[in-house]
Each structure stands twice: as C-alpha cells, then as structure tokens.
Description:
With 286 residues, the chain is mostly helical. It is 80% helix and 0% strand.
Amino acid sequence: MTLPQSESGNSQSFLEHFEELRRTLLKCLAAVVLLFIPSFFLAPKVINALIAWSCPPEISELNFFSPMEVFIIQMKLAALLALIISFPYCIWQIWRFLLPALYEAERKALKWWVLASAVLFVLGASFCIAVILPLVMKFSAGFSAPHLKAVIGLGGFLSLAGWLILAFGAMFQFPLAVMLSVRFGLVKRSFLADKRPYIAVIILIISALLTPPDVISQILLSVPAYLLFELGLFLSKGFEKSKTDPEKNSLQKDSCAQEAPSSVSGDGMLDFYISEDNKTHEDENQ
Length: 286
C-alpha cells in the first residue's frame, strides 16, 4: 500500500500525509460539535420515547437523585446522538483520505465490508431496543410486591440501555467476523465447526463482560450471538469453495503439464525404434 497521491501524481511526504490526516479528523470533530447543539434539544424527546417504549406500567416513572443528574445525562446523550448523526459524514471523510492509497479491488472490498458492518450494527441496536430492552425492564418490574416498589433512576436505566445497545451492535458483527476469518485464511471453516462447544463458552464469557451483571441480559445476548455465529459459518461456505476451486484447477493444470512431456517423449521413443527397425530391414535387403 502506498501513501496517498497528490493531484500532480507524486507521492506525498510523511508531513503532507500527516497534515491531510489532521484536516480529516478536524472536519469530523467540527461535524460532531455542530450537531451537538440540536442533539441537546433532541435528547429529552429521545429519553421520553425510550422510557415510554421500554418501561412496563409497573414502572410508570423514573427518578433522579442529584440536582444536576438530568442535565449531565442530557449532555452525554446529546454527544452520543451527535456522533451517531455525523457517522456517515465522518466515514465519508475517512474514506476520501484512504481512497488514494487503495487498489481498485481493495476499494470495492472495503466499501462492501464497511457497509455490511454498519448495517449489522444498526440491526443489532434496533433488535435490542425493540425486543431485548422491554423484556429486561419487564423482568425487573416482576420483582415488585405490595411492600416492595421499584425505584429506578434515570441514570441507571440509560446506562443499562446504552450498554445493551452497544453489546448487541458489537455481537451482531459475528457473521462478518467469521466470513472475513475464513475468506483471508486466518482460520479454516472446518476448525470453527469442530470447536463449536468452545466458541459457545467464549460467547457466554463475552456476553457476561458486555452486559450488566445479571443472568437474563447475558442469556438474551449470548443466544442470538451464537445463532449469528452459525449464520456466518453457513455463509462462509461460498468463500471456502471459491478458494479451493482455483487450487484444484491449478493442480489439474500441473498434472496435465507433467503428463504431456512424458507422452511426447514416449511417442518419440516409439518413432525412434520404428525408424531403426526400418533401417535394419533395408540393410538386410541390400
């Protein structure tokens, strides 16, 4: 891989390359800062919608326990929303920076892999918000009793929601990770298939690290993650087949190339013996 090319076609120096990277990062940072202000006013609506969707009737309201807690939470959520909204622009800027240093095949491959990764992350986050988060909150509300009332803080609820969304977005990358590993020869598909029990244990450990310390969240994350691993294993068949077919063709070509000279040399020896036999017959006749 070479350094990005300038308009004149000459390779940029290290300082020029570093300066271009600095400008790219500053553009990304400026986009996040500009979007922070509208995101700050959008944050309360997002919080209210998330509470209305996720919390059951037993948890009709949330609480805050310090004077500035809601303001700080709103600031954090505004920064997160600004990052999410500016993500396509930042990816486009980074893509423009990397584009001159990539070959045509690398550009096409990277474009599709990045798009697939973004789609999988959005699917994982959407699945968490639509299905998993309401189940977790309903399970939590199930512990309420006449003398036991749930008093859940806004900070704790948003922290739980954020960790679950991030965890499901990351774990939904499993099919892509399996396909890339098989595609680039880092591991064989047969090896992954044989090590299914160990991979299941690893998924449980990762789920325990990514989710809050409760068994329900761990199970709700590990089961879809393992199913996604099986999906990636199934989709990687095409990569393994396309990788082995050229090897078979090259072996067949090599074997044909090795057999061809032997057949030619055999025919040449046969012609030699026939010509020698004809010469002996001509000498006898003379």
